[in-house]
Design goal:
Blueprint: E1 2-6, E2 16-20, E3 26-30, H1 37-45, E4 49-54, H2 66-72, E5 77-80, E6 109-111, E7 116-119, E8 122-128, E9 137-141, E10 144-148, E11 151-152, E12 155-156, H3 166-177, E13 185-188, E14 194-195, H4 196-202
The structure holds zinc ion (ZN) (2 copies).
One zinc ion binds at residues 14, 59, 61-62, 149, 189-190.
């Protein structure tokens, strides 16, 4: 699988990912963070067959481009069931604190833990990793793990927001992410990429050493 990262919401530094299967061009967009036409242009220029919008969780800095993508492509919007109501509520998605509030279209597919979708011949596995929010997910395909605001390079997501819980977050990371092979590449919702091996050694919040 191939991917590209975009920074369309510089105020928050949210990573938006386009991920695709080279053979079939079937693609998903993860966390379209803002209504920036560059995302639409890229999908067209790369000749992608966009199949899914996936939000790793419902916070306002990850969902602001949902409406734009839905308006330009005919495809389902997917989020874990426990974060679905954040899409439609500016208090719950915290955008009531932003300069511009954000209301997303409603979800079409509500994910559960361990659900698997396909892009071409590739499996894409949805892993429920609560702790930053109740319905936070990580998305695994091959050795790529898109982990939203659950795990960052040498850090972890905030747990002081509604739905957050530090112990739950640490449990998610230890029991569901650190069991993956060391060479799994982690692609977080903010900041640089890393690997599972590096984070199990060096992460000051959840590393074992
Ligand atoms: Zn968040
Ligand atoms: Zn975020």
């Amino acid at each position: 699988m191939k991917y590209k990262v975009y920074n369309v919401l510089p105020e928050f530094g949210t990573n938006t990912y386009l991920v695709w299967d080279e053979e079939s061009r079937q693609a998903m967009i993860i966390d379209p963070a803002a209504s920036d036409k560059v995302l639409v242009d890229e999908i067209k220029n790369l000749k992608l067959d966009l199949k899914y919008i996936i939000n790793t969780h419902g916070h306002g800095d990850h969902i602001g481009g949902n409406a734009l993508i839905k308006a330009n492509f005919d495809l389902p919007l997917c989020i874990h069931s426990l974060d679905a109501d954040m899409l439609l509520n500016t208090e719950k998605n915290l955008s009531s604190y932003f300069e511009e509030t954000i209301i997303s279209p409603e979800a079409d597919i509500l994910f559960k833990d361990n659900e698997i979708i396909k892009l071409g011949k590739n499996n894409v596995k949805i892993i429920h990793t609560p702790g930053h929010s109740s319905g936070g997910i990580s998305i695994l395909t091959g050795n790529l793990l898109f982990c939203g605001d659950t795990l960052f390079s040498e850090s972890v997501g905030r747990t002081d927001l509604p739905g957050g819980n530090f112990n739950t977050l640490i449990k998610s990371i230890h029991e569901k992410l650190f069991i993956l092979p060391d060479d799994t590449i982690i692609l977080p919702g903010h900041g640089p990429s890393s690997t599972i091996g590096k984070e199990t050694r060096d992460n000051p919040f959840v590393g074992f050493n």
